[in-house]
Write a structure and sequence with these properties.
The longest helix has 19 residues, at 113-131. It is globular, with a radius of gyration of 15 Å. It has helices at 14-27, 49-57, 113-131, 150-154, 164-174, and strands at 2-9, 33-37, 66-72, 86-89, 94-98. Strands 2-1-3-5-4 form a 5-stranded mixed beta sheet, sandwiched between helices. Helix content is 33%, strand content 17%. Helix 1 packs across helix 3. It binds zinc ion.
């Protein structure tokens, strides 16, 4: 059984992690994936993808069927004038989703928890699928579409298209 671990990195409310985990489980309930929550770990000393993924690395075992997604309560960037919403490292079976820029209030807009949670959910599902070997999709409503900004994330459906869903399950069956 392939296991997907969600790892809070930084101070994230347990209720939010539990809710997101339940939503991810629901979206993947017809697949052969087991989704579980890991205990939270502290933020790394530098907010770069490499430092965040290093936090996850020691949680990985030799189990080739285990994958980790870090949910990071920090703005993650490669350099000072750059930022990322998500990143994956296929060879180490782990990825991350950075939360702060997914909140409307980051942009001085009214807080909207539903919008925020929908964005996080879509990015987690996409990270999981990328780690499992699914490719990007041209359908801008599909989770696997390469959204370049929040608007493009928002207009996606929180689901895989009719091409991607069977492909994902084929990938899962071969791991
Ligand atoms: Zn698709």
């Amino acid at each position: 059984m392939i296991r997907i671990g969600l790892v809070p990195i930084g101070k994230i409310p347990e209720s939010l992690v539990a809710l997101l985990t339940a939503q991810v489980k629901d979206k993947l309930k017809d697949s052969a994936l087991l989704v579980e929550i890991h205990p939270a770990v502290a933020l790394p000393e530098k907010n770069t993808p490499a430092f965040v993924l290093a936090r996850l690395a020691h949680l990985l075992s030799n189990n080739q069927q285990k994958f980790l997604i870090g949910l990071v309560e920090a703005d993650i960037s490669e350099s000072e004038d750059d930022f990322i919403y998500n990143r994956e490292e296929h060879s180490r079976r782990m990825g991350l989703v950075a939360l702060p820029r997914l909140r409307p209030e980051f942009y001085k807009l009214p807080a909207n928890e539903a919008v925020f949670q929908a964005r996080v959910l879509k990015l987690i599902l996409r990270e999981i699928a990328l780690l499992l070997g699914l490719s990007l999709c041209q359908d801008n409503k599909c989770l696997m579409y390469h959204a370049r900004n929040l608007h493009e994330i928002d207009i996606k459906y929180p689901s895989f298209c009719l091409d991607c869903w069977p492909q994902l399950n084929t990938k899962i069956s071969k791991i």
